[in-house]
C-alpha cells in the first residue's frame, strides 16, 4: 500500500542510517513536515548529538546495527515508512571487495525486517548512479541512447577495473529489489550522484569512492553530482507521491565542460592505484566546448514539479558536523 500524498502529518517513519549527511538531512526535513521520526544511528558520536534534541517529542533515537536484526526491528516498530541509506562500518570505511558483501548483507537484513513490519507502507532505498552507468563493452558504452534508470552496471566490468563502490551499490540494490519483489515490499530507489554539501572540498571529491573511474565518467557525460538538500527533498517526494515507482536518478549538476572534467579527473587519476577505465579522447584545454550529457534524470524531475519543499511545521535544526 502506497502512502498518502497528503496525510503525512503525525505519521511515523524511520530513517536508517541517520548517522550520515543524507540521513540527517532527511530527518530534519521530515520533522519540519510534521512526521514522527525514528532516527536509527550507528555512530556513537551522532547518537549523543541526537539525544540533545530528544526534547523534540516527534523524534526518537535508536541505536542501530544493520547486522543485528533485533535492532533493525526495534527501530522500525510502528513505522509506516523507511528511508534507508548504507553507511560504511567505522572499523572498515574503505570500499573494497569485502565491502561488497557487507553492503549486500545489510540490504538483505533491512528489507527482511521491512517485510516483517506489518505497519510498513513504503521503503525509499538510497542507491547510486554508479549502479547504473558502468555497462560498457570493450571499454565503450553498448548503447547509443542516453543512460537512464532502466540501466544497470555490469558487475564483471566493475570487478575488472576494481570499481568496488559501483559493484557494492549495484549488487546491494539488486539484493534489495529481489527481496522487495519476493516479499511484496513497496520499494522505490533513489540513485544518487556524487554527494555535495556546503562543506565539500575538492580533496573530498577526489577521495570519494564514487569518483573511481572519474575520467571515463567525465568523457562520456556521466559524471553527475547532487546537493544533499535536493537529495533529501527527492527522497521525501518519492515517499509521499503515491504514483512513484521503480528507480529514480537523482542529480542537479553534470560536469559537462572539459576544463571541469580534466580538473577533477586528472587529479583523481594521479592519486589512484587501480587501473580504472581510461578515457579514449584527450581534451584540448583551449577548446572548452561542452561535453554532451548522456544521462537522463527526467523521471525524477517530472515527479518533483509539484513537490512543496517548503511545507513545514517549526524550524527543527540539526546539522552534520
UniProtKB/TrEMBL annotation:
Keywords of the record: Oxidoreductase
InterPro entries per record: NAD(P)-bd_dom, NAD(P)-bd_dom_sf, NAD(P)_dehydrat-like
GO molecular function, one term: oxidoreductase activity, acting on the CH-OH group of donors, NAD or NADP as acceptor
Matches recorded under SUPFAM superfamilies: NAD(P)-binding Rossmann-fold domains
Domain NAD(P)-binding as annotated: residue spans: 18-131
Family matches, as Pfam families: NAD_binding_10 (PF13460)
Protein name, as recorded: Putative Cinnamoyl-CoA reductase
Source organism: Zostera marina
